[in-house]
Amino acid sequence: MTVSNDSNAAARADGRQADQLRTLRFQNHIAPHATGSTLIEWGNTRVICAVTVEESVPRWMKDQKVEGGWITAEYSMLPYSTLGRKARDISKLKLDGRTVEIQRLIGRSLRAALDLQKLGARTLWIDCDVLQADGGTRTASITGAGVALGLAIRKLQAEGKLTASPVTSPVAAVSVGVVDGKALLDLNYVEDAAAEVDMNLVMNGAGEFIELQASGEEATFGDQHLAELLRLGKGGIRQLLELQQSAITA
User: Fold this and answer.
1) The whole model's pTM is what?
2) Which CATH number fits domain 24-249: 3.40.50.2300, 3.40.630.10, 3.40.309.10, 3.30.230.70?
3) pLDDT tens digit sequence for 195-239
4) Which long-range contacts (CB under 8 A, 24 or more apart) does 15-18 make?
């Protein structure tokens, strides 16, 4: 498969260039009872991300005498988030495999942002609820959760519950892929559904990878293709980290 890496190629269906993110906006403090929260609007994808604090740690940490705190995540697509109503997991009496995968990914990603020892013996619950899905709900959840987490940490510091920030490096995530032979940043649903190669990147502010999820959809890709996708993804992550910081300090 030949992949075009011309960022000046013809605009996509929504008018963006190959290396251009969708419009992104954070609306903070959307959930007043949460310690930190934001509504991330990323193109037509909208996710509420909220952090609440539990002043205890999971039992396994107590049993194993693990010091510090913990971060865990829950992810849900609300029934009206897609064109056709999506049944709630509770109606099936179990989480579907995709939900489990994504909430574990969110938890892993945000734990990589903190020094859990400095968090103290408390658990941060991260809830990500998708209001509208148009591709990239997992990357929006991680990126939005990064803002909600930053707001929560600032509040805990202001309340004197933390003497220093446990944040070691901010974390953001973005999708890249190959559609019609072209490498693209930040796929919407139509592009994602047509992608020959699909990849999600999670990275920190130091430019280090936390997670890479890549697959060929009835296609293969080589070293050059991978390098171009990583180049696009890294550029997108840099922009997202700047937007996150602006949202947290606004």
Assistant:
1) 0.92
2) 3.30.230.70
3) 999 999 999 999 999 999 999 987 888 888 899 999 999 999 999
4) 16/186, 18/182, 18/183, 18/184, 18/185, 18/232
